[in-house]
């Protein structure tokens, strides 16, 4: 009563997966970018000084990893495969690590950009796995519906 069904929760997964693929397409192709530099790992300016730098590459990929790992804590666990758990954990770890490195200012230049690129690649692979799982789940559903319809005749 008043709960959210699994289909609406999955829409968040699918929306984030498509967003990760869109950010990856912008970062790795010649599509015009809404922010100034390629794989900057940084900064959409925030009004509060001293805050953690926000990077679209890291925020979207890390959010997808977090949402996928959150499914382990819910009744939606039956739809999570081990590769999804591994990719979700790796993506979330890399996003947190590179955000910390940018915030701490520990590494400037190439090191952070490589971690950001690897985070985005892991996020894109995770997004692909989430969307393929969705297609498999939909195929199984329609197969069951078809079998049910045929058995009623």
TrEMBL record:
Residues crossing the lipid bilayer are 12-31, 51-69, 81-101, 113-136
Q: Which UniProt keywords apply?
A: Membrane, Transmembrane, Transmembrane helix
Q: Know the name of this protein?
A: Transmembrane protein
**What is the organism field in this record?**
Natrialba chahannaoensis JCM 10990
């Amino acid at each position: 009563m008043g709960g959210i069904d699994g289909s609406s929760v999955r829409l968040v997964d699918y929306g984030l997966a498509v967003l990760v693929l869109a950010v990856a397409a912008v970062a790795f192709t010649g599509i015009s970018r809404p922010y100034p530099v390629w794989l900057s790992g940084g900064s959409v300016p925030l009004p509060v000084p001293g805050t953690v730098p926000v990077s679209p590459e890291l925020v979207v990929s890390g959010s997808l990893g977090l949402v996928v790992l959150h499914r382990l804590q819910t009744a939606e666990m039956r739809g999570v495969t081990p590769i999804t758990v591994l990719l979700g954990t790796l993506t979330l770890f890399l996003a947190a690590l590179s955000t910390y490195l940018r915030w701490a200012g520990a590494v400037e230049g190439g090191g952070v950009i490589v971690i950001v690129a690897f985070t985005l690649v892991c996020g894109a692979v995770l997004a692909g796995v989430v969307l393929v799982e969705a297609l498999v789940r939909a195929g199984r559903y329609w197969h069951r519906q078809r079998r049910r319809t045929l058995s009623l005749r």
